Amino acid sequence: MKETTQPIKTVADFSDPRPAFTDEMRKTYTILIPNMLPWHFEIFRELLLDEGYHVEILMNESREVIDEGLKHVHNDACYPALCVIGQYINALKSGKYDVDHTAVLITQSGGGCRASNYIPLILKALKAEFPQVPGLSRNFAGLEKGSGIQPSLKLLLKLAHAIFYGDAIMSYYNQVKPYEKEAGAADEARKECVAYIVERFRKGGYLALTKNNAYLIERFKRIEKREIVKPKVGIVGEIYVKYSPLGNNRLEEFLLSEGAEPVVPALMDFVLYCAVNVLNDATYYDMRSASTPIFRIAYRYLLSKQRQIIKQVRKDGTFEPPHDFEHLRRFADIVISQGVKMGEGWLIPAEMAALAESGTENIVCAQPFGCLPNHIVGKGTIRTLKNMYERENIVAVDYDPSATKVNQENRIKLMLATARENLSQTKNQTKKEK
Questions:
Q1: Nearest-CA neighbor of 81 among 311, 264, 238, 195?
Q2: Which of 309, 310, 303 is nearest to 211 (CA)?
Q3: Which residue segments constitute the domains of the chain, with CATH numbers given?
Q4: CB-CB contact of 365 with 408 (8 Å)
Q5: How many CA atoms lie within 13 A of 306 on its CB side?
Q6: Contact at 8 Å (CB) between 419 and 362?
Q7: Which one, of 322, 325, 304, 305, lies nearest residue 313 by Cα?
Q8: How confident is the model over 221-230, as pLDDT tens digits?
Q9: Lowest mean per-residue pLDDT among 17-31, 130-144, 154-168
Q10: Can you give the pTM of this predicted structure?
Q11: DSSP label at 398?
């Protein structure tokens, strides 16, 4: 009898069309979104729920997540892609979801690397493990048309305001948490502020930016603080590892545990960066499209709202305001051309310069290992920045599946030792002057 065997399928077959996601499926499907900014994304989730989408933010962060990612993404490829895909597959294997009624969603900025290539990697992993699960994309670069949630103009306006509120909550929290007299007071305030903002969206009051921001300021002002000075540490770098607790091994929590004050630039800065790059394409490369005027209008609108918040925070005087984005652009011009936009491009050195200018001289530059564009604009500009700011204390930290948390934290501890020494010298100099 002739023995027959089936060939082993080792590579995902893309000849079949991907599973479609129709508008009717929003009623019966759960959409999984990888976590990047927990408190921002909690607000986003509530907005999508109000639109009829059943959305869950993935909070799984075990080593199993990384191992799942390694099965589907080469370890020399993008670490953020590995983390995201690992979260998807680990969640789908958990038994918590009906995989026949589950989809996954990713946002893409349409840049020159992973920002354009996430979906192929995600679809390959899904094809191998859960071929019935749709992989959706939300982007403004014309990628993956017809494969994601199509937000209305009203929803986009809501999401933009949600970013402003999320940034404000993140900033005020980080400026209070290291100094709170009562442990957990800042965490409680943050929960209350998120709940307040969600309620404002549901009642239609989300456009009252100044009024809502005033509530956030007053709520965090009520927290009693200790009269101590701690070193401020800015966090810059690739968008995912800069913010994601999974991607950066809970960097903000580590800095807090080491007696530092984390200073995290606003997510809105990245949104404005993406928008203005479209305008820069027209200026630097004579690349224009029908969407260029739309991006110009969006940029001006968002910048006006950002300046409204900055003016309000400065007038109150309690907290440090976010950087004016045009101010960031001027810093970029000093260090590197705004035509350099691969990865996070000119935004990274611009943020490092703006942080040093505003008194945050200690910086962690967090980047995926092997991310060439971000290493060029990150590590590649450190010498220039140190020539501009003599006391700027920068440590570049790589994140990848083989990098140990202990090694990363030890490098940050060395930076913090220098930060404390500089802070002590500043205190002594101030005493002498008095």
A1: 238
A2: 309
A3: 23-150 (3.40.50), 231-265+323-433 (3.40.50)
A4: no
A5: 24
A6: yes
A7: 322
A8: 999 999 999 9
A9: 130-144
A10: 0.91
A11: E
